[in-house]
Amino acid sequence: MKKIAIINGHPNKDSFNFGIAGAYKKEAEQSGAEVREVVIAELKFDPILHFGYQKRMELEPDLLNAWEIIKWADHLVWIHPVWWGGMPALMKGFIDRLFLPGFAYQYRENSVWWDKLLIGKTARIITTLDQPGWYYLLFYGRPSINQLKKSTLEFCGVRPVKVTYVGVIRNSTELQRKKWLYKVRELGRKQK
Questions:
Q1: Concatenated DSSP letters for 17-78?
Q2: What would the mean pLDDT of 142-159 be, rounded to a whole number?
Q3: What is the b/e burial string over 50-63, where b = at least 16 CB atoms within 10 angstroms of the residue's CB?
Q4: 174-189 and 16-30 helices, crossing angle to 10°
Q5: Which of 1, 41, 134, 170 is 20 to 30 A distant from 127 in Cα terms?
Q6: pLDDT tens for residues 34-78?
Q7: For the chain, domain boundaries
Q8: Looking at residues 151-168, what average pLDDT do you find?
Q9: Top-level CATH class of 3-189?
C-alpha cells in the first residue's frame, strides 16, 4: 500500500487548493493508498527562522507531527498557489523551519557535499496559477517550482518530482474547474 502525504500550502481553507487536496485524497484512498494530510494553515508554529542556521529553534509540536508524516510517506503531494512568482509566505516558513540539517539533509564535515536524507521518496507539485503554466515557465522561469522542486525536494533526495499546473484560476468557469478536478482525481487514482 502506497503511503501519501498531502501538504497543503494555501492559507485560505475556502480556496480551490482545498478542493484539489480533497479530490486527490478521495481518489488515492479509493485506489488503496493510505493518505495523511498536513494543512499548513492549521499548524501552530512561528514561520520565521529567527536565527538563520546559527542557532536551532525548538520545533513546535505541530511541526514535529508534520515531520513524522513526511518521514512516513513514500510520496509527497505539495499543493499551493503561486503568488508573486513564489509560494505563500506561510508555506515558505514551514519549509524554512522544518527542512533542517539533520532532518532533510546533512552537510559532510570539511566538504561542500551533503547527504540527502529523503532518498526513496517521490513527489508531485500541484500549483494553481493566474496565468498559463507555459507562460509561467517561459517568461518567468517558474521560480516557485525551482525553489520547491530543485532547491528543496531534490536537494534532500526526493526524486522524481513531477509538476501539474492548474490555471488560469482567475475568472475560470465552473466547467474549467470541474475539468481540473477531474485531472487531479486521475493523479490521485494513479497515486502519482
A1: HHHHHHHHHHHHHHTT-EEEEEEGGG-------TTTTSSPPPPPHHHHHHHHHHHH-SEEEE
A2: 97
A3: eeeeeeeeebeeeb
A4: 40
A5: 1
A6: 999 999 999 999 999 999 888 889 999 999 999 999 999 999 999
A7: 3-189
A8: 97
A9: alpha beta
Contacts of 118 (CB under 8 A, 6+ apart): 70, 104, 105, 153, 156, 157, 158
For residue 21, give the amino acid letter: A
DSSP 8-class letter at 84: T
Q: What is the spatial distance between Cα 25 and Cα 5, in angstroms, rounded to a whole number?
A: 9
Mean pLDDT score, 124-130: 97
Mean pLDDT calculated for residue range 120-124:
98
Task: pLDDT band for 135, please (50, 70, 90 cuts).
Answer: very high
Greatest Cα pair distance in the chain: 56
Question: Residues near 57 by Cβ (< 8 Å), separated by ≥ 6?
Answer: 46, 49, 50, 51, 97
All residues at 6 or more sequence positions from 167 whose CB lies less than 8 Å from its CB, including other chains: 128, 129, 130, 131, 132, 133
Pull the grid cell for residue 170.
Answer: 482567475
Q: How far apart are the first and last CA of the chain?
A: 13
- For 160, the grid coordinates are 522524481
